[in-house]
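Hi C.,

You asked whether I'd gotten around to modeling the 333-residue construct. I have! Everything is below, sequence then structure, no commentary in between.
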Amino acid sequence: MAIGAVVNALWDLKAKLAGLPLWRLLAQMSPKEIVALVDFRYLSDVLTPDEALEILKASASGKEVRAHKLAEVGFPAYTTSPGWLGYSDERMELLCGQAVGSGFTQVKLKVGRELEDDRRRCRIARSVIGESVGLAVDANQVWGVGTAIEWVKGLAEFDLAWVEEPTSPDDILGTAAIRAAVQPVPVAVGEHVANRIVFKQLLQAKAIDVMQIDACRVAGVNENIANILLAAKFGVPVCPHTGGVGLCELAQHLAMFDYVAVSGSLAGRRIEWIDHLHEHFIDPVRIRGARYLAPVAPGFSAAMRRESMERYRFPGGAAWSNERKHPGVGAAI
């Protein structure tokens, strides 16, 4: 993750020097230039440079058309905002209704506390969003293999769009066993995958249906290009994880590069949307009609407002000073 921070910062600088948003800078590179960005050590038994080159060449002819479409209509999003475990039924119901009213075609609920409680919450959510809107669930690695299989089967009647992180992503064979047992419910994994080798093995083991890359978990843009190429080789859609501070801003560039230059498809692809903390960024994400609008400002959309950095600079920032004077206030902020 430390390497990723440095690599991402360098790409931010490179895109700013080029006067382009990162997704467009990457997408306009030639297939050979993109392949040269990838370290194929430990991957070449599954994906060779020549295979990666062919994947990119196959998508090259339509890049400009897709880039133009992206600039016009944006990239599909799904929302996690309605589904936090701490929300009351009334709040969840209200937010699900608002999400559908805003045009979202998929919402996600957190699960894993108690099966019957999850069934009740899924029933409420499904009654609000209807049958045509996707309902995904996210366990955040809380289950072992056997429990995951039992739990997902207990929720399958709600026509799940996917189950996310049903167990530790380090347990590649366990994740594969879960996927085999809960089909046709898709399995989505990736936000805590540490490197391209784990993604390679998850794909080899047929353990995942959706790859959820994280912009900061692996070693930055270059390793995520490797992950995107692996997903393309195996025909698995990439739906980046967001959340946190700035992950929406970063992830959009990677998903848009994938669409324009690699997969050439929006089928099964969405970027997670969480509606908080964007006010701290100079170039925050823009959402319209439940779609991410393509960034136009040069860079990786990562620059934070100076006042936010000063306020939350640890340990001397005002937010932390206030926390010492009034315990609990900083956490609430």
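If it helps when you're writing up: Residues 2-332 form a domain with the TIM Barrel fold (CATH 3.20.20.120).

Thanks,
B.
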